[in-house]
């Protein structure tokens, strides 16, 4: 016979309502009692009926997680960490990919709102106006987009961009490019503001090129302009753009880092395996995924009484093989771009 909630209560020495709260609202149960009940439930093989619990509590115990591009290696560590964090709190996560399309993103949110208790938006492409309208339907937490009145987790890419400019300045570069990402990207805006300030302070000429697709193809497409620009260093929107740029420059006879130094953002696995290994700004994606789930569940439990939180996670520069001092002869000035 199937194990029931009454069996768990009897074996744990607690009331049925305590067992119910252990699974539906664990934060309301004493830690020692909660541990005992969970251990008994595990030993008996008890599994709560999620559908019945949803009818009783009004909670689905599901969360939505929407990312801009699941094929981008930036997102999988965040998704994996968010799923693990949610699982520890007896929540399931539905993952959806917008393919960088704001209209699809809106459609996915409107669909998920009916099936989840809250939504995590990672690097959203929607306008602030649309997000403000949609947030009335379900609690939101946004990752890497600053929105007034909305709980947000930010990876401080601006701080990393400033350090990247300082790095190339220290190597002796005096003219560098910034390859920005999509037009609606918060990350692009933060990188541009920080890189502009750092370049001014370090007496570096900054050439801004973009918007660009946040993919290897975006980097390949930008290679011609970079080769013709006379810059000796490039800070790219992400690692994929940087890897595409390196390949595009190689096709034009431009050596990295001998002629042009290249820096990415993310510290993804492809950049570590590339030759040259990519100098990059590491992003704490797993920590952001865990923190976003915790903040979202806090918002779900608090309802309208919750206070919006702004959490900022530090980034740092990882120096590898794709950056070096500029060539004495000016490097790329002796090359003929094709």
UniProtKB/TrEMBL annotation:
Lineage: Bacteria, Bacillati, Actinomycetota, Actinomycetes, Streptosporangiales
Top-rank taxon: Bacteria
Name of this chain's protein: LacI family transcriptional regulator
GO molecular function, one term: transcription cis-regulatory region binding
SMART domains, A to Z: HTH_LACI
Gene3D superfamilies linked: 3.40.50.2300, lambda repressor-like DNA-binding domains (1.10.260.40)
PANTHER family noted in UniProt: HTH-TYPE TRANSCRIPTIONAL REGULATOR GALS (PTHR30146:SF109), LACI-RELATED TRANSCRIPTIONAL REPRESSOR (PTHR30146)
SUPFAM superfamilies from the UniProt entry: lambda repressor-like DNA-binding domains, Periplasmic binding protein-like I
InterPro entries given in the database record: HTH_LacI, LacI/GalR-like_sensor, Lambda_DNA-bd_dom_sf, Peripla_BP_I
Keyword Transcription regulation annotated: yes
Domain HTH lacI-type, residue spans: 3-57
Organism: Nonomuraea dietziae
Keywords: DNA-binding, Transcription, Transcription regulation
